[in-house]
Amino acid sequence: MPNRSDNEISMKVSREVILDLLPLYLAGEASPETAALVEEYLKHDAVLQGQVDRDGMKNLMTATASAAALPVELELRSLRRTRSMLRWQRVAYSWALALTIASFGGVGYIDSGHAVFHWIMRDYPQVFWPCLLLAVQCWIWYFVLRWRLRATKLQ
Questions:
Q1: Number of C-beta neighbours around residue 41 at 10 A
Q2: pTM of the entire structure?
Q3: What is the rounded CA–CA span in Å between residue 28 and residue 34?
């Protein structure tokens, strides 16, 4: 980049633009022209240069870049675990819904030309309570899995 005075650089490129470009520059992903522009600006802005050096932004960006390059086996394990959690969440939801519907359902039939209906809750408590307890356990299981997936921002 040709030599310019301090006024020309500050007039042509604002500090906000350099702050926007700084993460790309520090990560080493900026084009050569952009890198030269940022370096030239930092030469003339001692405060920003000091901030970059003092805050360790270079170290932070290097650590971020190295963390982004995870081993393939770790990524594959994470993907498999996520798929497994989503599968178990679907299973828990299906069972919870089916058991809830079954416990609050009923049995109907026709006897001697008359329709007869028996609520499971009222007429078959020996079936209702275990069914309801299993439904509650499945709902808890479902919401725990949902919470774990949301806590990791996977859902």
A1: 23
A2: 0.50
A3: 10
